[in-house]
Design a protein that fits this description.
It contains four helices and 15 strands. The chain is of the alpha/beta class and about 180 residues long. A six-stranded mixed β-sheet has the order 3-6-9-12-14-15. A five-stranded parallel β-sheet has the order 1-4-7-10-13. Strands 2-5-8-11 form a four-stranded parallel β-sheet, with no helix packed on it. It is globular.
Amino acid sequence: MNCYNLIQSDYKKYKKYGGNFITILFFTQGFWAVFQYRVANNVYKMKLPIIKQILHVFCILWQKTVEITTGISIPASAQIGHSFYIGHFGGIILNANTQIGNNCNISQGVTIGVSGIEEKRGVPIIGNNVYVGANSVLAGKIIINDDVLIGACSLVNTNVDSNSVMLGVPAVKVSSKSSKGYI
């Protein structure tokens, strides 16, 4: 998908949860951050080095402005699939090497970061249709498979099977009901 199609799919996801063009564009901080990320990621992938560097400076300044006003940090180098939704703004930090699949939702206070030592050091890889609840932390070289729900205030630092519902510190599987109904 090109940048325009990704932005369009993100917009449709925001529209699905309510709101109209004016409220989404002007009053939805999560959409601002995702829109800025999509543009910056497109610049990050550019093949023209001189133009890329000039535009990259503007994207960094724009990212910092969005980060300060929304509390959402999404680096341009992150890999995020289509239909990405941030439910509430504030305190969201994604590592530069973050990989998130398609049709995922994250809530306020979520951190996706690096952790671990030696060969276990790394950043999570998140599958499709994953819902990450408020104030959750996903850390380390782990794989979170498709259709997973991570409950609020959970710490996920181990691999997660598809269709799992994870909860707690550290998070444990409490159900196999998946993220259906949350996405």
